[in-house]
């Protein structure tokens, strides 16, 4: 057996000791009862450890490593560099009160909802964490002092675009005070910690009552201290600003694209997608809005699409029935995959349930997969209900957005063959670093990409209304990239954001306002859908070109939009999808390398 030159097992064990909540999420459970040390001394120890591990990996002779080892080394180095960047430059604990809420939720919820280990070990770890919530939140309050102006090295340690070397010199990052938006959101979501504590008692019984009561009281005290102590100094907006955003983007995207490339590609795709939607709406509008009204709107393409989507959106479930409808649509996706043999279905169980309250600030439907090092654990497909204080008009707007056809697409994206299937396949990896350090760009990109693949392969039986809603869904993905760049790098305001999403992308206002909030609460995640999808199509186009060359045929030419590729001699889409899923959840550049493809042309 070949020696583990990267010391993958040791690296992950040491990471778990430094970051116990991250370790629980990964499926490493030796530290499930502990919290990370948020004190200044704890932060310094983490940074020193990250520097040590990066130096150790950089010292491993490259000539001794296989192709898989090299990919794992590069992925581990990029992950450690991103963690270091987060601590040194982003410093969320200093300006983002939501950071502590997320840490607590991430530390408690897996111990309540999952079944790794034994019930006794989980209950003991949960009790320990519940008792430690107060100290953690008190330390979080003390840390919320804002980030001073920083003078940092221009080389941030992130992977770079092909052919681009790291910059030299220094970069000045503006000061960032505590964000008022993040503070208000944290106060609103702090009650979710109390709900988790109560849920812990429901699951494990009376032995956890005392610890749960202490955690609930700590959550109340946290909210009160935010109001009284932190609010007076919460004068920030939470926007990154262009210098920090550009640096963060390199880490998120594994250096595959910069802000200018994203803006160019997204703008081009935005126009092409709108044109396709107009084409479909012209064809089906008489059926949905009547011949007379369609004729009236013939000269107004935007209103034609809006009216057709509005009519399609009227076919929606009641709010109370959303879960059952998502379950039905997921079963339909599974039946389609079984019938076509497109990919292998996962063995891991899936549960579709309402989103836990502490996660509802981020809205929408999403998947919570088990830790990549846990085996046989269930995934959760979360569906977020309308807020308790939503007006009837707001509820109707949300339901029109999540209409019957949109739920079909959400079932593909979140479950089969989207996130649930892809992450379950990744969890089968026998390479621990590849499993632990997955790329959100590939994960999100796969889910967008494979939705188009499903329609190309016949899902929906040619329903043009479904296709129109799909392109609206995809247009939202493209708009997400423009939205993130606009808010965090260009300083765009709410009016601009709503015009992009409602005025140009035909989104319901409730969806647009929720997305504007989500975009301001985080940075660089929203572009991953678009960038990852484009990367997956580039990988397929490269694979088609290789297959065509081997068959002596000309390489196929990609169209203006994803999907609808012509048949290619020697190319099998099921075989290609299986090949993509074989390597875990790597960044797109590493996926190309592992699949033996030359680097695709960057967008």
Describe this structure in words.
- With 603 residues, the protein is mainly alpha-helical.
- The protein has 2 domains: 8-238, no CATH class; 260-529, no CATH class.
- It has 26 helices and 5 strands.
- A 3-stranded mixed β-sheet has the order 3-5-4, with helices on one face.
- The longest helix is centred in the middle third of the chain and has 31 residues, at 259-289.
- The two termini are 41 Å apart.
- The relative contact order is 0.10.
Quick rundown:
By secondary structure, the chain is mainly alpha-helical. 62% of the residues lie in helices and 3% in strands. It contains 26 helices and 5 strands.
Oligomer: single chain
How many helices in DSSP terms? 26
Number of strands: 5
Work out the count of structural domains. 2
Structural class: mainly alpha
Chart the SSEs and their pairings.
Blueprint: H1 8-18, H2 20-26, H3 40-58, H4 67-90, H5 92-95, H6 98-113, H7 119-143, E1 150-153, E2 170-173, H8 180-189, H9 191-204, H10 209-230, H11 242-252, H12 259-289, H13 291-296, H14 301-313, H15 322-340, E3 350-354, E4 366-368, E5 379-383, H16 392-401, H17 404-414, H18 419-426, H19 432-436, H20 440-456, H21 464-488, H22 494-503, H23 509-521, H24 527-550, H25 573-581, H26 588-594
Parallel strand pairs: 3-5
Antiparallel strand pairs: 1-2, 4-5
Helix pairs in contact: 1-2, 2-6, 3-4, 4-11, 6-7, 6-9, 7-10, 8-10, 9-10, 12-14, 12-21, 15-17, 17-20, 20-21, 20-24, 21-23, 21-24, 22-23
């Amino acid at each position: 057996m070949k020696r583990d030159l990267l010391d993958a097992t040791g690296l992950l064990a040491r990471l778990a000791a430094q970051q116990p909540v991250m370790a629980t999420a990964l499926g490493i459970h030796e530290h499930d009862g502990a919290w990370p040390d948020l004190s200044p001394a704890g932060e310094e120890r983490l940074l020193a450890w990250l520097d040590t591990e990066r130096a150790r990996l950089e010292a491993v002779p490259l000539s001794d490593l296989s192709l898989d080892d090299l990919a794992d080394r590069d992925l581990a180095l990029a992950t450690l560099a991103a963690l270091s960047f987060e601590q040194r430059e982003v410093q969320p604990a200093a300006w983002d009160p939501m950071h502590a809420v997320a840490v607590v939720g991430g530390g408690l919820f897996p111990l309540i909802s999952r079944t790794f280990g034994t019930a006794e070990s989980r209950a003991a770890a949960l009790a320990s964490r519940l008792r430690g919530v107060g100290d953690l939140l008190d330390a979080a309050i003390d840390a919320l002092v804002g980030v001073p102006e920083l003078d940092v090295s221009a080389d941030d340690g992130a992977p770079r675009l092909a052919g681009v070397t790291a910059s030299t010199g220094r970069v000045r990052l503006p000061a960032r005070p505590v964000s008022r938006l993040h503070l208000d959101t944290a106060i609103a979501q702090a009650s979710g910690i109390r709900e988790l504590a109560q849920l812990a008692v429901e699951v494990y019984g009376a032995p956890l009552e005392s610890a749960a009561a202490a955690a609930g009281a700590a959550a109340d005290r946290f909210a009160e201290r935010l109001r009284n102590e932190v609010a007076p100094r919460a004068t920030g907006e939470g926007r990154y600003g262009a210098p920090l955003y550009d640096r963060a983007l390199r880490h998120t995207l594994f250096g595959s694209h910069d802000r200018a490339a994203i803006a160019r590609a997204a703008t081009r795709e935005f126009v092409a997608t709108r044109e396709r939607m107009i084409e479909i709406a012209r064809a089906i509008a008489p059926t949905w809005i009547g011949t007379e009204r369609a004729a009236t709107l013939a000269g107004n393409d935007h209103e034609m699409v809006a009216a057709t989507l509005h009519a399609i959106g009227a076919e929606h479930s009641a709010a109370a029935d959303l879960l059952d409808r998502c379950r039905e649509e997921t079963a339909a996706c599974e039946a389609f995959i079984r019938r076509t043999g497109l990919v292998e279905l996962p063995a891991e169980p899936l549960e579709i349930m309402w989103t836990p309250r502490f996660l509802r600030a981020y809205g929408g439907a999403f998947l919570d997969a088990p830790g990549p090092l846990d085996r046989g654990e269930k995934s959760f497909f979360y569906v977020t209900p309308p807020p308790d204080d939503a007006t009837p008009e707001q509820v109707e707007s949300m339901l029109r957005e999540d209409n019957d056809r949109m739920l079909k697409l959400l079932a593909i994206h979140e479950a089969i063959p989207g996130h649930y299937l892809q992450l379950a396949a990744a969890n089968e990896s026998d390479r621990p670093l590849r499993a632990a350090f997955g790329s959100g760009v590939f994960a999100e990109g796969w889910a967008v990409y494979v939705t188009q693949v499903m329609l190309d392969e016949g899902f929906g039986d040619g329903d043009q209304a479904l296709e129109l809603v799909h392109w609206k869904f995809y247009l939202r993905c493209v708009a997400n990239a423009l939205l993130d760049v606009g808010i965090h790098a260009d300083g765009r305001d709410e009016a601009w954001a709503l015009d992009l999403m409602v005025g140009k992308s035909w989104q319901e206002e409730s969806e647009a306002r929720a997305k504007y909030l989500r975009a301001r609460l985080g940075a660089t995640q929203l572009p991953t859908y678009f960038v990852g999808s484009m990367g997956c199509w580039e990988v397929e186009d490269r694979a088609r070109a290789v297959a065509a060359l081997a068959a002596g045929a000309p390489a196929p030419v990609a169209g203006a939009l994803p999907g609808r590729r012509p048949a290619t001699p020697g190319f099998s889409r099921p075989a290609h999808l299986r090949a993509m899923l074989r390597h875990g959840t790597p960044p797109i550049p590493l996926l190309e390398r592992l699949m033996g493809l030359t680097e695709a042309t960057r967008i």
